[in-house]
Design a protein that fits this description.
The chain has 544 residues and is of the alpha+beta class. Among the domains are: 115 residues, no CATH class; 110 residues, no CATH class; 117 residues. The chain has a 4-stranded antiparallel β-sheet with strand order 1-3-2-18. The chain has a 4-stranded antiparallel β-sheet with strand order 16-17-21-22. A two-stranded antiparallel ribbon has the order 4-5. A hairpin with a 2-residue loop joins β21 and β22. It is globular, with a radius of gyration of 27 Å.
């Protein structure tokens, strides 16, 4: 039965990504292990939990009854399933490095934490112990004493997916999915592992393995072995209170990697009072963040309209687009992994309802799914997303620290009806062809055409966010300027021209008073007169 009052979790906010995922993790765990009727929503940029647990009961649940989801990644070298190669004290006189023996028998911090959980007798780690035993059995049967790669890695993931229980399979679906191989003739299997953007490349970010990090953080807040001194339990409660209800408390963070999820705590240059700082994280922040990521499940789908053999689909994920935010640059689109558009909602929803929303992840532009940020923004204002969602927090996985990726918050897009944005469907195909010619992924596009495309996409985003005649007029001007740029660099044939028949745009040009449009300057419309521009868009049948 729901509590008579909502419980505001000030530590769970839409920004950064770690805190958004933390909110999902709390709702999922409470609904699955404490109160099936639990629900949650976003109010004033904070997550509000509706359940039978008050503040003290919520903290008590996580401290004493929460059973962690088995988070393992035996396909990674730093996952805790592989020993390091033994080294002698003697050094090679040529290289100056210690001589390796070829035997893998040196334990690491990751292997020690796996052993500690396996030896634990706590019922809270029962699922973990079962999954570790199965994984070790599979590795022994396959004769693996080091992390595999290529086809062997794909086969290991497939084997584990068939052996592990459903709870761990859900984790696999979040970090990797098996799709059709590009060249099956050169591999031992006709499939390959593809990696969704949220959890790096198979649950690791560079040298940091998320599964090992998760287990280490667990053992900091849940006693292993169970006989923990009172001081450790008090510190765990302090960290949990700070993670869930916000605030900065001394001693609530530990020196550990946070990865791409929380750029402000990732360490590096200009991250502290000195020249460089270390990465610090609240252990409960990391634990609840990974638990929340399980709501994102990847899937292999066949996109017939794209003519692809197989493609990776991920909830509310689209290709990166360098538009709509102040720091946008072509490199963000060319080198970015993807974008995530995370939904926000004002009315309480249960876990089952939320799983349905993430499972469908509907973002339609007309009859096709959204492919990039421009499409997703249009979907948000043309009833192309699920009803009941109030806004989307846009994240881009951009290179912001050398070659490392950060989940960078880009903008907030409000879901509201915008009839003027419907007019863009008439030139949708033409804009797609323009992106193929002049987008950041095109080979040496003309600079003038790329600038015109960038201006056009910026005007489209502004129209979607502000339903006004001036914004629509700016889009029409940008369309004409883009066509003019194309005509200067390419042959302005029928394919490169704007559509000959645009029943939505023509009334906007012919009946300006209805849309509140001023006269469109001829110089901004491929150098033709206003009446000629309308006639060419609509064909000869358009009345003057």
């Amino acid at each position: 039965m729901s509590a008579p009052y909502p419980l505001t979790l000030a530590g769970c906010t839409p920004v950064p990504l770690a805190h958004y995922l933390k909110a999902l993790g709390i709702l999922r765990l409470v609904a699955e292990q404490a109160d099936p009727a639990a629900a949650g929503c976003w109010q004033r940029d904070m997550f509000v939990l509706h359940s039978s647990l008050d503040r003290d009961a919520l903290l008590d649940f996580f401290l004493h009854r929460y059973q962690p989801t088995p988070i393992l990644a035996p396909w990674n070298g730093g996952s805790g399933f592989y020993f390091q190669e033994e080294k002698l004290k003697e050094k090679d006189p040529l290289t100056g490095k210690k001589i390796k023996t070829g035997k893998r028998n040196q334990p690491t911090a990751a292997t020690r934490i796996v052993d500690a959980i396996l030896k634990s007798s706590s019922p809270r780690f029962a699922g973990f112990r079962s999954a570790i035993s199965i994984a070790r059995s599979v590795l022994q049967r396959r004769g693996l004493d080091e992390a595999p790669d290529g086809g062997a890695k794909n086969e290991l993931i497939s084997d584990l997916r068939g052996q592990w229980p459903d709870a761990v399979v859900a984790w696999i679906d979040c970090v990797t999915i098996l799709v059709n191989a590009d060249t099956p003739a050169t591999t031992t299997a006709s499939f390959k592992a593809a990696f969704p953007p949220l959890l790096g490349t198979g649950a690791n970010d560079g040298n940091a393995d998320f599964s090992s990090n998760f287990m280490q953080r667990l053992c900091e807040v849940i006693p292993v072995p169970e006989e923990a001194p009172p001081d450790d339990l008090a510190k765990s409660r302090l960290c949990l209170d700070a993670a869930v209800f916000g605030g900065t408390v001394a001693g609530s963070k530990t020196k550990a990697a946070i990865g791409q999820f929380f750029p402000g705590s990732a360490g590096g240059p200009n991250n502290c009072a000195g020249f460089s700082g270390d990465s610090f994280v609240n252990p409960w922040d990391f634990i609840l963040m990974i638990e929340g990521a399980l709501l994102f499940a990847a899937a292999a789908v066949r996109r017939l309209e794209a003519g692809e053999e197989g493609a990776l689909a991920y909830p509310f994920s689209v290709r990166p687009t360098a538009a709509g935010y102040a720091s946008s640059a072509g490199e963000d689109e060319a080198n970015g992994r993807a974008e995530l558009w995370l939904p926000l909602w004002h009315n309480p929803v249960t876990l089952t309802e939320l799983q349905t929303v993430f499972g469908e992840a509907r973002s339609q532009v007309g009859s096709r799914p959204a492919r990039n940020a421009i499409d997703f923004t249009r979907a948000a204002v043309t009833l192309g997303v699920d009803r009941g969602l109030s806004s989307f927090q846009r994240y881009g996985f951009c290179q912001r620290n050398g070659k490392n990726y950060f989940a960078t918050p880009l903008e907030r897009v409000v879901v509201r009806r915008n009839a003027r944005a419907d007019l863009l469907s008439e030139v949708d195909a033409w804009i797609s062809r323009l992106r193929d010619k002049a987008g950041p992924t095109a080979k040496q596009p003309p600079a003038s055409v790329s600038r015109a495309l960038n201006q056009l996409e910026g005007r489209i985003l502004e129209l979607c966010k502000q339903n006004s005649a001036a914004r629509l007029q700016a889009v029409l001007i940008a369309l004409g300027a883009a066509e003019r740029a194309v005509g200067r660099k390419y042959a302005l044939d029928q394919r490169n021209r704007l559509p000959a028949s645009a029943p939505g745009l023509v009334p906007a040009l012919a009946n300006r008073s209805q849309y509140g449009l001023a006269r469109v300057p001829p110089r901004c419309r491929a150098g033709v007169g206003d009446r000629q521009f309308r006639r060419r868009l609509a064909g000869p049948a358009l009345p003057s």
